[in-house]
Amino acid sequence: MDGTNIAIDSTKLNSFEKPKPKSKLKDDGKSPNWGKKKDTDGNDIKWFGWKLHILADCKSELPLAIEITPASVNDSILAIPLLKKLKEFYGNTFNVKHCIMDSGYDIKENYDYIMNEFHAQPIIAYNKRGSFAPPEGLNERLHPICSMGYELVYWGKDGDYLKFRCPHVLGKVDCPHGSSWCSSSNYGYCLKINYKKNKRYFSFPIRSSDEWQEIYNLRTYIERCNSRLKEYLNTDNIRSAGIKKAKTFALLNCITLVAGTIAVNVNKSLPKVA
Fold first, then answer.
1. Distance between CA atoms of 224 and 190, rounded to whole angstroms?
2. Whole-angstrom distance between the N-terminal and C-terminal Cα of the chain?
3. Are strands 121-124 and 62-70 parallel, antiparallel or unpaired?
4. Phi-psi region of 53 (alpha: psi -120 to 50; beta: other; left: phi over 0)
5. Predicted confidence band of residue 270 (pLDDT cuts 50, 70, 90)
6. Model pLDDT, residue 68
7. Left (φ > 0), alpha (ψ -120 to 50) or beta: where does 93 sit?
8. Which pLDDT tens digit goes with each residue over 193-236?
9. Contact yes or no for 57/254 (Cβ under 8 A)
């Protein structure tokens, strides 16, 4: 466990209480509710109960902080509370470099908190929010484009600025207007973007690059953490009513997971007796 790369995700937990129609539910933040999310195949899954929100270390695949909410609570608003718990519990123990989340956490507040409080890079999938076209001046990969619609070529980082150059000058495309369409310089059109002021669209490493994707793929480690808690430790088998008991049950399972991992590692380090 080193905390260099951390991931946040939620998983469904069925409640012990009997399901009720939405019209008869209490919206008090303490009662179970109906939730809906998509599975890995894009299918909608509905359930009555809770959400277990987990912040996990990507190296060890162990939970560092958890929270329980009614199933109807939006994932995006739980990222900051979990990160605050991480800071409260561990202080400066971990040097966090990347915070990895899916598109459900793609809101400005999460980017701001991660970069301002942890000085880390958010690696969060972009949420189109129903839009049919990418933001103005960008393509589907969220890379800047020139006035002819060609993707500008990433040309390195200078401090907080990402540098992009004309693809025609660099021999990537054959623009019918040549480089003079955008710039009179032999260097060609050059665009500099402060990625810290455009947090949702730009990051370092840049979105859609191999390096960015490699880091984002570490999110599968928290899915393994969820899987172990639910399949091996029976976390999704709550047998008591109420959010406090549900959280206690989840915490005990997390403690068991961590303790079991410690025991296995200690056993491996012991000298073998002939």
1. 43
2. 31
3. unpaired
4. beta
5. low
6. 96
7. alpha
8. 999 999 999 999 999 999 999 999 999 999 999 999 999 999 99
9. no
Residue with tokens 């009720």: 20
| CA dist., res. 67 & res. 244, Å (int) | 11
Q: Is the pLDDT of residue 30 over 80?
A: yes
Which residues lie below 8 Å from residue 129, measured CB to CB, with a gap of 6+?
none
Closest by alpha carbon to 96, among 83, 107, 109, 85?
83
Strand partners, 35: 47
Q: How many CB atoms lie within 10 A of CB 8?
A: 27
Nearest to 29 by CA among 252, 248, 242: 242
Q: Express each pLDDT in 43-70 by its tens digit.
A: 888 999 999 999 999 999 999 999 999 9
User: Could you tell me if residue 82 is left (phi over 0), alpha (psi between -120 and 50 degrees) or otherwise beta?
Assistant: alpha
> Which of 61, 64, 45, 43 has its CA nearest to residue 53?
64
Confidence of residue 273 (pLDDT cuts 50, 70, 90): low
Instruction: Write out pLDDT tens, residues 7-24.
Output: 999 999 999 999 999 888
